[in-house]
Design goal:
Elements: E1 2-3, H1 4-14, E2 27-30, E3 36-37, E4 39-43, H2 48-56, E5 61-64, H3 81-91, E6 95-98, H4 101-104, H5 110-118, E7 121-128, E8 133-141, H6 145-154, E9 168-177, E10 192-205, H7 209-219, E11 227-231, E12 240-252, H8 253-264, E13 270-271, E14 278-288, H9 293-298, E15 303-307, E16 322-325, H10 328-332, H11 335-346, E17 351-354
Parallel strand pairs: 4-5, 4-17, 5-6, 14-15, 15-16
Antiparallel strand pairs: 1-3, 2-6, 7-12, 8-10, 8-11, 9-10, 12-14, 13-16
Helix pairs in contact: 6-7
The structure holds zinc ion.
Zinc ion is lined by residues 66, 287, 328, 332.
Length: 366
């Protein structure tokens, strides 16, 4: 058994809600965060059949990739499919949680899973997001620096790429005068005090700013902590849309497409002409990725695999890049397995099941 809020907190550490796109509606769509969850179903989509399945197996939570409530609902009408599902979920006390573009925008998410299945190495995001991190500067009296440093690390600050516990410090002298009514840790009221301090600097994720500052306050001896938050324009290879990496060994194009078809079970792959004879550098974007075609071209991808492409998208010159649509559901289907393995690893004694329902609404007449 697990509190819903613990599961949510964990999922939002993996894929912070602040990383979702502006049009998205990820997060808890219905449910009491204090409720206890014994069983959950994971599915790419919520359908009537998935909801029925959850009721039958007595699951208290459904985790989906695509948020069933996407556009604002003005009335809960029994004639509307989304409303009907929401009403039923409420009646049956089944919480619904969506982890969508926030999971698309971390490299260990949807695209990382596709890359693993393809065996891509040297993976980086295709279109890095900006403004995901800030610099935190804190001024700390010399003997307390380690405590504050550890508090920032424990709260999730100081991580750069595959490195943690990253910080920089420089020594200096701080001055302050405690005024009437204050309660200084050191120095006398009404007299200027000089203190040997260290200036500590960290990179922190924007979404953790409030909790990290709280930990700084808790671990710092001063009544009033002096700190700066500095906006950064840095982009990071792990945060953003799509991904690009290399195949272990370059592959003839037809063979590559055959591999993709077999790994993802795509009934058909739609693609532009085959003029690239060999594929080595592969860009991917699970689901609708046409907005990243130019990113893939500019990064020199031999192939860009995505979904939901329309006629005109395929006019990408084939000598520049193979562009292939291998199906929306097909591209994202392993997202359920990814969510299940993440949740199971964190909460080993908790039932997380993949839906037995095939939710792909697209069928192919061959
Ligand atoms: Zn999708």
């Amino acid at each position: 058994m697990q509190k819903l809020k613990d599961i949510i907190n964990f999922l939002e550490t993996v894929a912070p809600l602040s990383l979702q796109e502006g049009y998205d509606n990820s997060g808890l769509l219905y449910g009491d965060p204090e409720s206890n969850i014994e069983k959950t179903i994971v599915s790419l989509d919520l359908t009537d059949a998935v909801l029925e399945e959850a009721i039958n197996i007595k699951a208290q939570l459904i985790i989906v990739h695509h948020p069933p409530v996407f556009k604002p609902i003005k009335r809960l009408s029994h004639y509307d499919q989304v409303s009907r599902m929401v009403i039923k979920a409420i009646q049956e006390h089944i919480a619904i949680y969506a982890i969508h573009t926030n999971l698309d925008n971390v490299i260990w998410g949807v695209n990382g899973e596709i890359a693993n299945r393809l065996g891509l190495k040297d993976l980086m995001v295709l279109s890095p997001l900006s403004n995901t991190h800030q610099k935190l500067i804190v001024y700390v009296p010399a003997l307390h620096t380690e405590k504050v440093r550890n508090a920032v690390f424990a709260a999730g600050g100081g991580a750069i790429g595959n490195y943690s516990d990253c910080s920089f410090s420089s020594k200096g002298i701080g001055t302050f005068k405690a005024n009437e009514g204050s309660n200084p840790w050191t120095g006398k009221i009404g007299e200027r005090n000089e203190e040997a301090e260290e200036k500590l600097e960290f990179l922190i994720p924007v979404h953790l700013q409030a909790s990290i500052l709280q930990e700084v306050q808790n671990s710092h001896p001063y009544e009033t902590v002096a700190y700066d938050i500095v906006a950064l324009n840095n982009q990071f290879h792990e945060i953003g849309g799509g991904a690009i990496g290399r195949l272990n060994t370059p592959m003839p194009t037809e063979l590559f497409l055959k591999e993709v078809k077999s790994i993802f079970g795509s009934a058909v792959i739609r693609h532009n002409g085959i003029e690239k004879r060999e594929i080595s550098k592969v860009a991917i974007c699970g689901g609708a990725g046409k907005s990243l075609i130019n990113n893939a071209l500019s990064k020199g991808a031999d192939a860009f695999l995505t979904a939901d492409l329309s006629y005109h998208d395929f006019f990408v010159p084939p000598f520049k890049m193979l562009l292939a649509d291998f199906g929306h559901f097909e591209s994202e289907q392993f997202t359920s397995e990814l969510i299940i393995s993440l949740v199971k690893e964190k909460f080993p004694n908790f039932a997380v099941l993949k839906t037995a329902i095939q939710t792909n609404p697209v069928h192919y007449f061959l």
